[in-house]
Amino acid sequence: MELIPAVARALEELRRQRPLIHHITNFVTMTDCANATLAIGASPTMTNAVEEVAEMAAAARALVLNLGTLQAWTLEAMLAAGKSAAAHGVPIVFDPVGAGGTTFRTQAALRLLDELPMAVIRGNASEITCLAAHKSGQDFGVDSRLGPADPALASSLASHLGTTVAITGAVDVLSDGCQTAEIRNGCPLLTYVTGTGCMTTSLIASFAAVADPFTAAAGGILAMGIGGELALAGEGKNGPGTFHARLFDAFYQLNDAILQKYGKVVVHRE
Amino acid sequence: MELIPAVARALEELRRQRPLIHHITNFVTMTDCANATLAIGASPTMTNAVEEVAEMAAAARALVLNLGTLQAWTLEAMLAAGKSAAAHGVPIVFDPVGAGGTTFRTQAALRLLDELPMAVIRGNASEITCLAAHKSGQDFGVDSRLGPADPALASSLASHLGTTVAITGAVDVLSDGCQTAEIRNGCPLLTYVTGTGCMTTSLIASFAAVADPFTAAAGGILAMGIGGELALAGEGKNGPGTFHARLFDAFYQLNDAILQKYGKVVVHRE
Amino acid sequence: MELIPAVARALEELRRQRPLIHHITNFVTMTDCANATLAIGASPTMTNAVEEVAEMAAAARALVLNLGTLQAWTLEAMLAAGKSAAAHGVPIVFDPVGAGGTTFRTQAALRLLDELPMAVIRGNASEITCLAAHKSGQDFGVDSRLGPADPALASSLASHLGTTVAITGAVDVLSDGCQTAEIRNGCPLLTYVTGTGCMTTSLIASFAAVADPFTAAAGGILAMGIGGELALAGEGKNGPGTFHARLFDAFYQLNDAILQKYGKVVVHRE
């Protein structure tokens, strides 16, 4: 199926099912991630006690692991939840916030990658490349500040990481190693609201409950990019506070017609 | 006194006194709970260190204990704060988020119930019934997905739990075992914003600083339900982001005339 | 240079540089502090694990230490980050939330003051006076509920604390012991939104990355006060929820012309 119709079908399905999306995530964007998950049509839980995360992850339809405000104890909770998710066939969507930024954070990301099967990894070019470099011993020479990742790099990183990668930036690129897509939605005001990356990960996980990882990654990225455009077209142009509120309105309003009208996707199949 | 005039009088009183409401609550909805408390006219503190919660609870006019994102250390803080509140006559409003959802959470809820005198317990039908079933050894056969609790059930649960219960859902029901009320305010968009349950608990606690538990529970539920209706009637109809912001506007604007005009309350006295 | 032109120049510079502002802050207002930092034009990180804060603080351009929701472990993280910041010449902006409110909190604030060089301390009159009284052994006889601090008191507190102090309230006063300013911007609705004090601290830190402590304190206070006035002049008058969103719009829109038009500053030089 074409990518946009596949995303539209997944969106309809997730609204019908309202799947439970378990997050172990950071304290900065936790509320926004819960609200993004609700607005797109799924059901969030942010339970993070090591005593109960395995039980909760087993009952969920997707699991988000997000490294922002990482602590030693949240890492343990992520490992416990991730192993339970893996054992129960629950897809894991990983957001390696700040990988490469500090030693603690890079090592935690690599440990999670080693011990857990990730369905999708979403990050900026610098974070994803850091992980792929450590896994493969290869230097990809990419810096997120230098511009967007290109499709060939995304495909290479996906192959080295053995999963679907979603690299978000001025242009978003995603790849599962076999198929690669560029998505050119979004707007600069998205960089003036904290958590738009984290929320994209939560949206991807919402789609991952009902679709394959590549479609899910495209769905989450399209929801955020088109959401930003719709928010900016309305009252959101007033500034980042109003824009932020209008983003959730846009996730809620997203549908097949809007995806078809606004989605700017190019797919490359190898 | 009739229930709505009693709520209106309590609202006026809480705005005059700006009572300090101490919360030990979850990390997802903490900010929204603080803002709801401020918007209705009270003063929040979210202090949660075990080293200081007893001192803070003694200085507060009501204490919220909310189990979302429960941790072993937050449970200890809740016990310390709750014992101090009890010793100083500070009413405790308990929100057993997710009771019945995991073993850890159910046991924590039951331990708090055993050790602390709760003025009000607010939850959905599934959470409240889970607690009453464990306390009484009786199976109430209720599932929150099956629809709202009815007044007879609310009264029975209040008796079994020995406190005022507020069961929120499509219809809200509250009872102290002697008097029972149904409140039919609210709108479906409330279920697309995280923390509307937690905020209702904070609103109840704000009222509990100046009113009896039954009036307080009615006040918090009416504030949220009417708030949702007012938010929806304005810009909030645009979607859950704008609606969320407008909810706080509505709490702030709530007054006697609005309570009289919009409140849909039926009281049963046994 | 006059104070408002100095603030305007610093604002332009911070937007050009987008400096990294490291926060170890509370869980209630963390998201709002990150969004305020972004909206004014800087770049926030809220990393708080003791394993990585020294590394992060060394890479930052300013460090915020905020005592709200203090824990023993966040205190350790603050000390580690603060020592690293001091060693690398990174200015520290301290927000002693609730100092004087509980013993735990007062002692933590005093320990941080003893061990770390603070560039700016921002709090209400009660918090700042509590710290100065403990440091100097002198009773200043001030209670934040009695009204705003006056310039003479601010100057005295700055001298006793050996740093720039920013005392916010109905009127804001700042002093570095040599120069003192009163700022009369703002509006009462700011007291109905949680975290406006914490956000002011984050805004001060954003300015402190590119300006001296006195100019930075003035910049943060002006941004919040004028922001409140602009938010109130627009849709924000609807209530604290809409007002809250509009605050971020106002930080984003703040510029030289707005500072000149709205800023109400009186500077006293000794």
Automatic annotation (TrEMBL), chains A, B, C:
Pathway it works in: Cofactor biosynthesis; thiamine diphosphate biosynthesis; 4-methyl-5-(2-phosphoethyl)-thiazole from 5-(2-hydroxyethyl)-4-methylthiazole: step 1/1
EC number assigned by the record: 2.7.1.50
Keyword ATP-binding in record: yes
Coiled coil: none
Binding-site residues, substrate: 46, 195
Pfam (any one): HK
Catalytic activity: 5-(2-hydroxyethyl)-4-methylthiazole + ATP = 4-methyl-5-(2-phosphooxyethyl)-thiazole + ADP + H(+)
Residues reported in the UniProt entry to bind ATP: 122, 168
Molecular function GO labels: hydroxyethylthiazole kinase activity
SUPFAM superfamilies in the record: Ribokinase-like
Cofactors (names): Mg(2+)
UniProt KW Glycoprotein keyword: no
InterPro entries: Hyethyz_kinase, Ribokinase-like
UniProt keywords, alphabetically: ATP-binding, Kinase, Magnesium, Metal-binding, Nucleotide-binding, Thiamine biosynthesis, Transferase
Function: Catalyzes the phosphorylation of the hydroxyl group of 4-methyl-5-beta-hydroxyethylthiazole (THZ).
Family of this protein: Belongs to the Thz kinase family.
Protein name: Hydroxyethylthiazole kinase
Provenance organism: Megasphaera intestinihominis
